[in-house]
Design goal:
Helix content is 64%, strand content 0%.
């Protein structure tokens, strides 16, 4: 990003984050991008924001020392145990006998 800004003739200031700052900033940016996704009105805009979220997810899994493939494996295992969202079924509540 700094290179892109500087190529446009602007000046930007940067600094390296320590580990705690880095994951905190990833988390903040995820919230920001999620809010932007929630406010989209077109499919193209939604895809753009989802791509930003996915980029942040890649950064987060790398921070935790795992690969995106490892994350995907966990997602698949959870979907097999608990189900996913593709069928658009909304669980309202669970009642005991």
């Amino acid at each position: 990003m700094p290179e892109i800004i500087e190529k446009s003739g602007l000046i930007c200031n940067t600094r390296l984050l320590n580990e705690d700052e880095y994951i905190n900033e990833i988390n903040k940016k995820m919230h920001e991008e999620l809010e932007e996704y929630e406010s989209t009105e077109t499919t193209d805009d939604a895809i753009e924001e989802l791509a930003d979220l996915l980029e942040l997810i890649h950064a987060a899994v790398s921070y935790y020392g795992v690969s995106f493939e490892d994350l995907e494996k966990v997602r698949v295992e959870k979907a097999e145990k608990r189900g996913g969202f593709e069928e658009q079924i909304f669980l309202m509540d669970v009642e005991e006998d």
